[in-house]
Amino acid sequence: MLVEKITSRQNPLVKRFRRVRAGGERPLVFLEGVRLIEDALATGARFESVAFTTELGATGRGAALLTVLQGVQCRGSLVSKQVMEAIADTRTPQGIAAMVSRPFFELSDLFALSPNLLVIADELQDPGNLGTIIRTAEAAGANGLIATRYTVDAFSDKAIRASMGSALRLPLVTDAKREDVISRCRENKIKIVASVPSLPRTPGLISDASSEPTVRSYTECVMTEPIAIIVGREATGVPSATSADVDELIQIPMAEGVESLNVAAAAAVLLYESARQRQFQFNSNLNSREA
Prior knowledge:
Number of strands: 13
Structural class: alpha/beta
Number of domains: 2
Helix content: 25-40%
């Protein structure tokens, strides 16, 4: 890592860091903080640029990170605290930020290895929720997560921080067409289930139409077979068009007066029910790779 010194907030590299942080250069991901950059190194991410302050080297962990980064082929910049504040998104920056290549997976990458557990994030709008779901999916042994079109960017600054580095390790497919995802699941004999806010008054079929999917409590859903769990938009849930295409609709029982759970909380309940049914024999995720 060749290091230059930057003291001006108007430096072109500083402006580029801010542009990447805002999602203006999709091939790159903005990372901030020691933990995320350690995670990126561990996954073999391709570093484009690193900016750091002198204060970073004052801690043992920070000094160790700088030592590792010295062997990385990328642009390095020693910046002032004021410049780091302009680059960073947090109120109290840890003194390091980086731009790395965005991991890229296609649907074929996920389905080629016969996944047992997938999460489908369908039009989620809150980056914190999506990041939390990605983190939980990795923890529960999911093979990957698919974000449909109109879902918030899984590699936005807020989403990737909420994922605590899981977005760099768990295979993520983004901007997928909903119908393509459903079709791939069908081709690979993966059961599709979607969460719904509440059960109808009489458990069983939603209606008398035999084509409608079954609605049941999540504890009654068999999750030991290959399965894809769909969680929908925060305000409206899974669209009715999607609900008609799934095998089962599942519901989490709640106390009277509570309309619904936060989508990240609901996803955690469902993912860990799957993990429980599999006796916590966690799957090995695909290895990350770069575009």
